[in-house]
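User: Can you help me understand a structure? I only have the sequence.
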Amino acid sequence: MQSVYEFLKKCGTYYLATVEGDQPRVRPFGTIDLFENKLYIQTGKVKDVSAQLHQNPKAEICAFDGERWLRVAAEFISDDRLEAKEHMLDSYPDLKAMYKADDGNTEVFYMKNASATFSSFTQAPVTVEF
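Assistant: Let's start by predicting it. Here is the structure, written out as tokens:
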């Protein structure tokens, strides 16, 4: 899990794919946080991605660092605890201009039953589960 965290942090931007009905939806994301031995992402409850993850928590992340790419398949579970939101916002202080831990909009999701595969054209894939 640490290697996934470090890779996503290094990339800065990754792409999160969710499902809306029978239509895949993909958008860029930039938040990744390690809190209480779980990987978290952050969004706003008013955004479509929040509704999509509540409807179907299975989603995937894809990121590329210029040499290797990472695909993570997981269930994204909402964590409404103030501590989890505060930890995320402390990790991304620029977000504090738009979000507050207790604003009723900030939402964090942690990854559960995750399978992450690191791939490249020059090495065999490596998969980690957490």
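Now, to help you interpret it: The mean pLDDT is 98. The helical segments are 2-11, 48-55, 82-91. Let me know which part you'd like to focus on.
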